[in-house]
Amino acid sequence: MQTSSIFDLTWMVWTWPTAIFFIAIFASIAAMGVWEYKSPGGGPRHGAFGLDTTRGDRLFISILGSCFIMLGWVGWASDEIWGGLVICLLWALAIYRWV
Predict the structure, then answer these.
(1) Which of 70, 68, 60 is nearest to 95 (CA)?
(2) Neighbours of 97 (CB within 10 A)
């Protein structure tokens, strides 16, 4: 009889690109926290979406978009994840540049 645990993570595919993706998310949140501590505020900016966004808002938008990009990439090309990581980096750069 097989017992399943709520913490059984054997179904997940932990590869180096996946680990790098999550490490980058956690590192960017930590870096943003340090940056906000050293220089509070950052000055809101009126961007392409017609919203006033701060650094933290742009980080949130880029992380949220990156999650959807990676989900789509894994569904489209499940064997190769590096391409999705490149698209996520380009997405984040575009968000920080124009939003």
Answers:
(1) 60
(2) 10
